[in-house]
Amino acid sequence: MFTGIVETLGRIVAIEKEGTNVHYTIKSNFTNELKIDQSVAHNGVCLTVVAINNDEYTVTAIQETLDKTTLSNFKINDLVNLERGMKLGDRLDGHIVQGHVDQIGKCVTIKEENGSWIYTFKYDESLGNVTIEKGSITVNGTSLTVVNSKNNEFSVAIIPYTYENTIFKYLKTGDIINLEFDVIGKYVARLHKRN
Q1: Strand 116-123 with 103-113, pairing
Q2: Is 73 helix (H, G, I), strand (E, B) or coil?
Q3: Residue 30 backbone phi and psi in degrees, to 5
Q4: Residue 63 contacts by C-beta under 8 Å, 6 or more apart in sequence?
């Protein structure tokens, strides 16, 4: 379980294929606090730490994860949003995030507005996911509030702090991103579909 509040950025330093699995080694400023078998969200994708070496750690992605997320696009030196699993009793500053990406989306516009940025994303609505105005959405592991909701498109406003401390400042129009829709909204949509 995560909150969508990005702790730090990590840098991919190695990518190794083994069968259909891919091992990613990440350099991070919190590696010394990690332990084997711990969950860490990488651009919103929950992966398990399988090895630690000094300030680098390794996680493994299976084919299912590679097929449904942007992880297969990762390259050496890419920066990724990182968040460790939340501690029981901590404040929930973002929203309830599972680290299970629902689908990918595409950045279609970026507009600067006097010190903040409006990012608009499109996604395949046929998969049944929805956003609502002022609802929560996770984009590349970052908990955000929807400011403009349409059937297959939504926008979010990015404040300077988020822009500087996540990979949003590197995002470009046309980039593919990971989306995790609000878990409560997913249950409501599923129940509504049954009736």
Answers
A1: antiparallel
A2: helix
A3: -115, 10
A4: 20, 21
* pLDDT tens profile 137-181: 999 999 999 999 998 999 999 999 999 999 999 999 999 999 999
Structural contact between residues 44 and 141, judged by C-beta atoms closer than 8 angstroms: yes
Q: List the structure tokens of 113.
A: 């507005």
- Predicted pLDDT at 191: 63
Cβ atoms of residues 187 and 102 within 8 Å: no
- How far is Cα 92 from Cα 77, in angstroms, rounded to an integer? 31
195 in Cβ contact with 108 (< 8 Å): no
Q: Residue 96 class from Cβ within 10 Å (0-12 exposed, 13-18 middle, 19+ buried)? A: middle
At residue 180, the pLDDT reads 93
Mean pLDDT of 92-113: 87
